[in-house]
Write a structure and sequence with these properties.
By secondary structure, the chain is of the alpha+beta class. It is built from two helices and four strands, in the order E-E-H-H-E-E. Strands 2-1-3-4 form a four-stranded antiparallel beta sheet, with helices on one face. Strand 1 and strand 2 form a beta hairpin.
Length: about 90
């Protein structure tokens, strides 16, 4: 099985990440090059959860992706949502 991030943008578009992982928790490997190397390297030693991966994704992708408000981890084969995180949109 493969897992990906799915991004929801404020303009109404949706996009799946190019990166995929064999487990939902392994998606943190996509952060390589987007965060401090020492901090990234320490992630291998920590117990990762989908919640933690999504919280980190919200921080790491800010500035690298266009204006997104929601990220999901999905099963790439079934499109089933494993976990998601959403930030409040200011009106």
């Amino acid at each position: 099985m493969a897992y990906r991030f799915k991004y929801y943008y404020k303009d109404g578009t949706i996009e799946k990440s190019n990166f995929h992982g064999s487990t939902p928790e392994s998606l943190y490997n996509d952060f390589d090059g987007l965060m401090d190397w020492d901090e990234f390297n320490q992630l291998n030693e920590q117990d990762m959860t989908t919640k933690r991966v999504l919280e980190m994704a919200m921080k790491v992708y800010k500035g690298f992706l266009k204006d997104f408000y929601k990220i999901e981890i999905i099963n790439d084969e079934t499109d089933e949502i494993v976990d998601s995180i959403e930030k409040m949109i200011k009106k």
